[in-house]
Request: fold
Amino acid sequence: MKILAPVNSVHEAEVLVGLGAEELYCGLSQAAWRKCNGEELWLNRRGPGNANVESLEELKELVAVAHKASSQVFLTLNQPGYAPEFYADILTTVRQAQKYCGVDAFIVADPGLIRLLKEALPELVIHVSSLAAVLNSASVSFFTQLGVKRIIFPRYVELETMSSIIEQGGDDLEYEAFILNDGCVFEEGYCHVSHAFGGAFCHSPAWTYKPIRIKQEGGKSESRRRMGLLRVGGETFGEHIEEYKRWIWIGIKNVGGMTGPRGYPLGMCGLCALTQLKEMGVMSLKIVGREAPLKKKIASVKLVKEILDYMELGHSTEEVKAQAKLIKGVKGLCASEYMCYYR
Amino acid sequence: MEWALSIPRGQALGWIEEPWATKENGAMANIREVCEGQFGSVKFTRMYFGQEFCEKALPSQEELDKALILAEQLGMEFTLVTPYVTESGLVVVKELLKQLMRVQPRAEVVVNDWGVLQTIAEDCPTLTPVLGRLLNKLLREPRMATHPNKPDGEALERFRTSSLAGEPMQVLLEQYKVRRIELDLSPQGLSKHLLDWGYQSSLYLPYGVIMTGRICLLHSWGLKGHQKFKAFSGRCDRKCRYYWLKMSDPSRQVKKNKDWVILQKGNTIFYQENKEFLKQGLETATRVGVTRLIIQREPI
Reply:
């Protein structure tokens, strides 16, 4: 199994391949694109700044560093869809990234763009982004017919489901799963807003929720009890929302960016599922967070590498789980399961 | 204009007798006033049965039977609406599709998952797929309207255009026999070039979809800690049937807007379009060539 790490610079690539990342992924945000299309229309799901490499020259250098260490580099073009006016520019960028920079594969979600790219460049290697929301085996068939090489499973796909999909998808495809950092409240592929307009719509605002009872078919009488006091399973709605915010804080906001006692990042994690992921045929483990500071990326790669090496020594599923929890060092948070991609 | 009435579940089949709900339902009264103001008396000629958002809320085969019989009795065309699905949901959808194909081989199916589209092509080729609004990746971004760098002119038009307008997707969808696509009345407005995209198009009213996911806020209510906020987990007691959640943001990152109200139902956040926004949107929809309006009392 390979560790897939996010990078945004040549320096980060040097550091992370040195720590054992055999695959890197990055975005590209060239000044010319921004000048032409504005700051709100992004080439990928993360905006200019920390999440992207800024030029083809830098990308070329980054790829050279990775290749020297026998690592590969993938470029994200992962918007769920692009207005067709952009296709020509994107195709030019892809040609340059492939031919001039040596990028190994492209992460794409838009079936139209995949079709366009494969028609123009049949040898191009395409990984289906998690933004395409491949949740079932028939969806794998759909994208296989478009000529893709790898399926990137969205977050929170149950292990049993993933295993069934891989079994039906076959060995010709590669499979990638999320392993560390940054949850999403909703299905990213069915999220119709953009962080360009003020960050994460689902959890950045201080949302309050007022329940409104719906009159039922047949005109049953409505409850006049105050919703905040209405209990389901002994829990009031107010208590439930407090717990929801706690889950968001732990799993989505990564416990406010804090680290555990050994300096490893907190937040979403799939390390307890490593042996099952390996057994079912997942070959790439995705660390999320292109815009994260290098310190966090280093800690993330080290953490995954440490547990991966432990597993490769032949330890059992239970031993790997115990080791992962031990190393993270936050027993209570692990027990909540709010940091688990796979539970 | 073709009028379709959305019936998201078997228990709601009675809505067919009272499509606009009761007088005290303000949202539906508004939409009726706007629709009839523009088009005159509305006659629903198509039933949209099912919903787009949750595999746990897929209808049973018995419910599908009842819906088909009712539609036939009333002389209505029939469309089965399907959500995005995991492997277990796909099994249920496949059964529903086979059942539908036996009864109405050429019936329409709204697909919101590429895998369901693939399944229709492979297993049920006589059915007529319609590309659902969740596979139409236009932004529905409520913050766009109030953002300091609010796009305008050419930039705005780009936000109105989706990959469906491009030749690669047109050819791909033609291979899958998709000739109709679905839309929301997005905050940035509809593309004035919609007809050039080459499809027939349908518009949902009065709820636009902002985001949806497999982790359901309402389903988790009352569950024990480790069971909460899990994706599509366990049996569902369908609390989404009983509650809307009205959302507001005291931090004002998402500002109040006269054009819509933001609501969550089950696993999905919607914006409910207000009267004036609906009115202007309908005028535009007619102008740009929308040929079907789908009225939703409740989307789930």
